[in-house]
């Protein structure tokens, strides 16, 4: 029987020199913040049956658990430093732990983000990560900083994760190849850390967030915090390659209100356009201009001809239980 | 139906000037670390049926969820700064949320510790708090710093929380008054933050931890990390007032290997004795000298006459499922 301490030692304590002054194994971890930098902090909790299917591949789940947290740092423009992992497990299943820790550390290492502490306990499967990053004072990409006239930009593509969900749920029929390709976007999101850091450090963007509950709902948070409105061009939204083969109604719906995209939505002055395109090229992430921030409140969705689209779209609410209203 | 955002706004977002540069409502919270200070970080996850009974009073649970985290800062000698709260709830029960948030914030305010962010989701009840404190470089009370000849000290009293558990589980019969009095120690632990900060800032103690899984098991972590041994005087252990009325065998067992005490166990040079007693008096926390750190490995439990006690005692292991072996 694997004990709690053996479990931590075998799968999570890598005992190697790192950024933490003191890592796993004491009452607290100790970090020495870089002089003058602010600490960005975010927590995400993933629950089986809610954020992932029961029986989900452990390695993919390790990746995704950290990816959604890295995405929050990306949305702030912060550089990843470290994270804590609190894990409730039904049992100490060694094959699961092996896969989960491999997926977790592969992504952590790619971003120089160190596991510095946490907690393990028995219970219904629940993964809670708190992540720490650093950002220079005044550089963070906040939700309340959008200004009328700003362009609205999206990184990467939208909608394939939602398409994969629709396939799993038999909302629509996908081929095995489509399901697999779209599923990768759902299971292995790529947090846009490098892009977020460039946008913040070069002061290219004003407001930003990551799209986790659907573009329209999430952009609404920027509009509310910044006390502005927006016009989005539905035909400019960058479509995931699998969704791109589907009909226009489905495309628009899944891009505008899909969820699980983990792409950045950010606003920036018109004067930043060339530099934003260069920043996207520098880190290998597509960036697409999809709309404009308005002084008038409200979110207007238009097509390429400027016609208004009357889509009723809402973000995902964890207590309402489903997307939409 | 209370939405996720309404829930956060109504019960957890107090929108008042605080220590955070940016608090609840963005992708990350932002903290400006005090210049030159290290950040102490700890996470604890509490699972229903594991760390607390189903149906536990929400206000007490709010207190305890934060208390166990504050206790980790206390064990490091760190000053509380802020915390994140990730909460999985079976439903958005407003009476529960009201009680939980009241218990949580009452303790948070008493320690100047601010809720800066978190996550809420639907799922089996699970409470995960990550806490942040600050401590001067070189002052943290680490587990690896005990030295042969150090006194071993305990704050407060031990065993009443374990006695309460025994009553709830019908391991033994308690009167209603005994159950209530001992139960307070289990449900409303008092984290020894002020004492820990004095021990660290005045450099009175060397190693420290908080006793959550039972004294013998937890002290074992200090011994292992510090590569030393210890002799504990079982008759010197400070007994909780309810347990004090029980027989000596039960007293010794519940004090030495009870769990849920959230008292500090720390080691200190003999030269610190008077100052430690003064520090305890200053913050209203009893401090008791209970043993000595030895160069020889192993933990010896003796009685007041120096006779060896052959107690087989182990700490609580969350995957083994029960205390002792």
TrEMBL record, chains A, B:
<feature type="domain" description="PurM-like N-terminal">
    <location>
        <begin position="25"/>
        <end position="135"/>
    </location>
</feature>
<dbReference type="Pfam" id="PF00586">
    <property type="entry name" value="AIRS"/>
</dbReference>
<keyword id="KW-0479">Metal-binding</keyword>
<keyword id="KW-0784">Thiamine biosynthesis</keyword>
<feature type="binding site">
    <location>
        <position position="72"/>
    </location>
    <ligand>
        <name>Mg(2+) 3</name>
    </ligand>
</feature>
<dbReference type="GO" id="GO:0009030">
    <property type="term" value="F:thiamine-phosphate kinase activity"/>
</dbReference>
<feature type="binding site">
    <location>
        <position position="44"/>
    </location>
    <ligand>
        <name>Mg(2+) 1</name>
    </ligand>
</feature>
<feature type="binding site">
    <location>
        <position position="27"/>
    </location>
    <ligand>
        <name>Mg(2+) 4</name>
    </ligand>
</feature>
<dbReference type="GO" id="GO:0009228">
    <property type="term" value="P:thiamine biosynthetic process"/>
</dbReference>
<feature type="binding site">
    <location>
        <position position="260"/>
    </location>
    <ligand>
        <name>substrate</name>
    </ligand>
</feature>
<feature type="binding site">
    <location>
        <position position="27"/>
    </location>
    <ligand>
        <name>Mg(2+) 3</name>
    </ligand>
</feature>
<feature type="binding site">
    <location>
        <position position="210"/>
    </location>
    <ligand>
        <name>Mg(2+) 3</name>
    </ligand>
</feature>
<keyword id="KW-0460">Magnesium</keyword>
<dbReference type="GO" id="GO:0009229">
    <property type="term" value="P:thiamine diphosphate biosynthetic process"/>
</dbReference>
<dbReference type="GO" id="GO:0005524">
    <property type="term" value="F:ATP binding"/>
</dbReference>
<feature type="domain" description="PurM-like C-terminal">
    <location>
        <begin position="147"/>
        <end position="302"/>
    </location>
</feature>
<feature type="binding site">
    <location>
        <position position="119"/>
    </location>
    <ligand>
        <name>Mg(2+) 1</name>
    </ligand>
</feature>
<feature type="binding site">
    <location>
        <begin position="118"/>
        <end position="119"/>
    </location>
    <ligand>
        <name>ATP</name>
    </ligand>
</feature>
<dbReference type="Pfam" id="PF02769">
    <property type="entry name" value="AIRS_C"/>
</dbReference>
<dbReference type="InterPro" id="IPR006283">
    <property type="entry name" value="ThiL-like"/>
</dbReference>
<dbReference type="InterPro" id="IPR036921">
    <property type="entry name" value="PurM-like_N_sf"/>
</dbReference>
<keyword id="KW-0547">Nucleotide-binding</keyword>
<feature type="binding site">
    <location>
        <position position="143"/>
    </location>
    <ligand>
        <name>ATP</name>
    </ligand>
</feature>
<feature type="binding site">
    <location>
        <position position="42"/>
    </location>
    <ligand>
        <name>Mg(2+) 4</name>
    </ligand>
</feature>
<protein>
    <recommendedName>
        <fullName>Thiamine-monophosphate kinase</fullName>
        <ecNumber>2.7.4.16</ecNumber>
    </recommendedName>
</protein>
<keyword id="KW-0418">Kinase</keyword>
<comment type="function">
    <text>Catalyzes the ATP-dependent phosphorylation of thiamine-monophosphate (TMP) to form thiamine-pyrophosphate (TPP), the active form of vitamin B1.</text>
</comment>
<dbReference type="InterPro" id="IPR016188">
    <property type="entry name" value="PurM-like_N"/>
</dbReference>
<feature type="binding site">
    <location>
        <position position="44"/>
    </location>
    <ligand>
        <name>Mg(2+) 2</name>
    </ligand>
</feature>
<comment type="pathway">
    <text>Cofactor biosynthesis; thiamine diphosphate biosynthesis; thiamine diphosphate from thiamine phosphate: step 1/1.</text>
</comment>
<keyword id="KW-0067">ATP-binding</keyword>
<feature type="binding site">
    <location>
        <position position="212"/>
    </location>
    <ligand>
        <name>ATP</name>
    </ligand>
</feature>
<feature type="binding site">
    <location>
        <position position="72"/>
    </location>
    <ligand>
        <name>Mg(2+) 2</name>
    </ligand>
</feature>
<comment type="similarity">
    <text>Belongs to the thiamine-monophosphate kinase family.</text>
</comment>
<feature type="binding site">
    <location>
        <position position="43"/>
    </location>
    <ligand>
        <name>Mg(2+) 1</name>
    </ligand>
</feature>
<feature type="binding site">
    <location>
        <position position="72"/>
    </location>
    <ligand>
        <name>Mg(2+) 4</name>
    </ligand>
</feature>
<keyword id="KW-0808">Transferase</keyword>
<feature type="binding site">
    <location>
        <position position="51"/>
    </location>
    <ligand>
        <name>substrate</name>
    </ligand>
</feature>
<dbReference type="GO" id="GO:0000287">
    <property type="term" value="F:magnesium ion binding"/>
</dbReference>
<feature type="binding site">
    <location>
        <position position="213"/>
    </location>
    <ligand>
        <name>Mg(2+) 5</name>
    </ligand>
</feature>
<dbReference type="InterPro" id="IPR036676">
    <property type="entry name" value="PurM-like_C_sf"/>
</dbReference>
<feature type="binding site">
    <location>
        <position position="316"/>
    </location>
    <ligand>
        <name>substrate</name>
    </ligand>
</feature>
């Amino acid at each position: 029987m694997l004990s709690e301490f053996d479990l931590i030692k075998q799968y999570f304590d890598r005992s190697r020199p790192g950024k933490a002054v003191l890592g796993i194994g004491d009452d607290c971890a100790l970090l020495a913040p870089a002089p003058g930098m602010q600490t960005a902090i975010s927590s995400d909790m993933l629950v089986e049956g809610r954020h992932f299917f029961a029986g989900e591949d452990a390695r993919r789940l390790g990746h995704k658990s950290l990816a959604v947290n890295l995405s929050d740092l990306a949305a702030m423009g912060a550089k990843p430093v470290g994270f804590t992992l609190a894990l409730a497990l039904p049992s100490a299943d060694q094959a699961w732990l092996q896969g989960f820790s491999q997926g977790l550390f592969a992504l952590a290492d790619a971003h120089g983000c160190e596991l510095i502490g946490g907690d393990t306990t028995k219970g219904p499967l629940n993964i809670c990560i708190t992540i720490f990053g650093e950002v220079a004072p005044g550089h963070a990409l906040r939700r309340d900083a959008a200004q009328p006239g700003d362009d609205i930009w999206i990184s990467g593509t939208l909608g394939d994760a939602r398409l994969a969900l629709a396939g799993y749920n038999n909302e629509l029929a996908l081929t095995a190849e489509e399901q697999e390709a779209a599923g990768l976007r759902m299971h292995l999101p790529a947090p846009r850390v490098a892009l977020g850091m460039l946008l913040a450090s070069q002061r290219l963007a004003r407001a930003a967030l990551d799209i986790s509950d659907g573009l329209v709902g999430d952009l609404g948070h920027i509009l509310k915090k910044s006390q502005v409105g927006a016009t989005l061009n539905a035909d400019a939204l960058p479509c995931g390659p699998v969704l791109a083969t589907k009909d226009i109604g489905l495309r628009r719906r899944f891009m505008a209100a899909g969820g699980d995209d983990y792409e950045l939505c950010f606003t920036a002055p018109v004067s930043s356009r060339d530099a934003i395109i260069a920043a996207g090229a520098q880190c290998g992430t597509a960036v697409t201009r999809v709309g404009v921030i308005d002084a008038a409140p409200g979110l207007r969705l238009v097509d390429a001809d400027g016609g208004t689209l009357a889509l009723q779209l809402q973000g995902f609410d964890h207590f309402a239980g489903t997307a939409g209203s």
